[in-house]
C-alpha cells in the first residue's frame, strides 16, 4: 500500500508542470532561430517572464529556440497560420514582403542596435511601414548593430578584395550591396552559417558581432572588416486571432510589453552581445580591420550609394513611397543617435 501511495504521489508530482501550464488562460508558443544559449534567447525569456508576472500567470510563454518549432524563413507565416503563437524573425527572410521596412538595412543607417531600433520602431509607430504587417499583431520591431564582413582566409580592406568570394547574405537587400562590391552573395539563415563555413561552401559572412558570438563563428572566421555595411531588421509578432481572443485587461498587458520600450530592451541585448563577440575575436588574436568612415569610406561609398539608389528606385517603380520612408529614416537616425 505504501509503495502504491508513493507511486501515486510521484505521478502527481510529474503532472505539476503540465497543470501549471494549463492554469494559464493563454499559453503562447514563442518560436525563434537563436540558440538557447544565446544572449538574445535570454532577452526573449525576460520578456516572457515579465508578461507572465504582469498577468499573474494568466499568460504563459513557452519557448522554442533553434528552429525547433519552425524554420527561420517560415517563422512569420507560422505565426500568421497559428503554427506558432509568437515569433522573433528577420523580415528579409520573406523576400519582397516588407520592402519599406528593409529601407533600414541600407548602409549608414545606424551605428548601434539602440539607434537602429529607435529608427525602425518610430517608422512603425508613425504608420510609415505598419501596413506591411496587417496579417499579424506586431509587438515590437528592432535591429541589430552594424553588419560587418567576416572571412575565413582573406583580409578585406577594399571592395576588390571581395571579388569572387562567396559571402553569406541574410536578405536580398544585402545581396545587392555585396554584388555591387564584387562578391558572390549566398542566401542562408544564420543557423546554417557555421557548417557552411566549415565545409567551405562559403568564404565568409555578413553579420554583426552578436551573430559571430551566438553562432560560434569566431571558430571559423579569422578576419573581420568593420564597415557597418547594413543594419538588419527584426520583428516580434503575435498571431492576430490569439490577441483578439484576449480580454481587454490582458490585451492591455500585452500592449505594455510592446513598442519602443521593448524594442530598446532588445537593442541593449544586441549591443551587449556585439561587444562580447568582438572581445572574443580580439582574445583569439584575429585580424580586425576597422574602415575609417565605415560605409562612408571613399573606397566603398560610391558602390554602396549606387546600391542604395538601385533599391529605392526599384521600390518606386512598384509604386511604393521608398524615398519618403528613407528620408524619414535618415532624419530619425540623426535624432535617435543623439
Automatic annotation (TrEMBL):
Signal peptide residues on this chain, from the entry's feature table: 1-23
Native organism is: Marinobacterium aestuariivivens
Protein's name according to its UniProt entry:
TRAP transporter substrate-binding protein
**PANTHER family assigned to the protein according to its UniProt record, in alphabetical order:** BLL6794 PROTEIN, PTHR33376
Under InterPro entries, the record lists: DctP_fam (IPR018389), TRAP_DctP_sf (IPR038404)
Which keywords does this chain's UniProt record carry? Signal
Transmembrane domains' residue ranges: none
> Which Pfam families does the entry mention?
DctP (PF03480)
Amino acid at each position: 500500500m505504501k509503495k502504491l501511495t508513493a507511486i501515486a504521489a510521484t505521478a502527481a508530482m510529474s503532472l505539476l508542470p503540465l497543470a501549471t501550464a494549463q492554469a494559464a488562460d493563454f499559453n503562447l508558443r514563442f518560436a525563434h532561430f537563436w540558440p538557447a544559449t544565446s544572449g538574445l534567447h535570454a532577452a526573449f525569456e525576460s520578456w516572457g517572464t515579465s508578461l507572465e508576472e504582469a498577468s499573474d500567470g494568466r499568460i504563459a510563454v513557452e519557448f522554442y529556440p533553434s528552429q525547433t518549432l519552425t524554420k527561420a524563413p517560415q517563422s512569420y507565416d507560422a505565426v500568421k497560420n497559428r503554427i506558432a503563437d509568437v515569433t522573433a524573425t528577420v523580415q528579409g527572410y520573406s523576400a519582397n514582403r516588407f520592402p519599406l521596412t528593409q529601407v533600414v538595412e541600407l548602409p549608414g543607417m545606424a551605428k548601434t542596435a539602440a539607434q537602429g531600433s529607435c529608427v525602425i520602431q518610430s517608422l512603425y509607430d508613425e504608420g510609415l511601414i505598419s501596413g506591411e504587417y496587417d496579417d499579424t499583431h506586431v509587438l515590437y520591431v528592432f535591429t541589430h548593430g552594424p553588419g560587418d564582413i567576416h572571412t575565413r582566409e582573406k583580409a578585406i580592406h577594399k571592395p576588390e578584395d571581395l571579388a569572387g568570394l562567396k559571402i553569406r547574405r541574410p536578405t536580398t537587400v544585402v545581396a545587392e550591396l555585396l554584388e555591387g562590391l564584387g562578391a558572390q552573395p549566398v542566401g542562408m539563415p544564420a543557423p546554417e552559417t557555421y557548417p557552411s563555413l566549415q565545409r567551405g561552401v562559403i568564404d565568409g559572412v555578413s553579420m554583426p558581432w552578436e551573430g559571430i558570438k551566438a553562432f560560434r563563428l569566431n571558430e571559423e572566421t579569422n578576419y573581420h572588416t568593420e564597415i557597418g555595411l547594413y543594419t538588419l531588421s527584426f520583428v516580434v509578432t503575435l498571431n492576430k486571432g490569439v490577441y483578439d481572443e484576449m480580454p481587454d485587461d490582458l490585451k492591455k498587458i500585452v500592449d505594455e510589453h510592446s513598442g519602443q520600450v521593448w524594442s530598446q530592451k532588445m537593442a541593449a541585448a544586441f549591443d551587449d552581445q556585439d561587444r562580447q563577440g568582438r572581445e572574443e575575436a580580439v582574445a583569439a588574436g584575429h585580424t580586425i580591420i576597422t574602415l575609417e568612415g565605415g560605409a562612408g569610406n571613399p573606397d566603398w561609398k560610391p558602390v554602396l550609394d549606387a546600391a542604395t539608389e538601385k533599391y529605392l528606385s526599384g521600390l518606386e517603380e512598384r509604386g511604393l513611397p521608398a524615398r519618403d520612408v528613407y528620408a524619414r529614416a535618415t532624419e530619425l537616425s540623426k535624432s535617435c543617435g543623439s
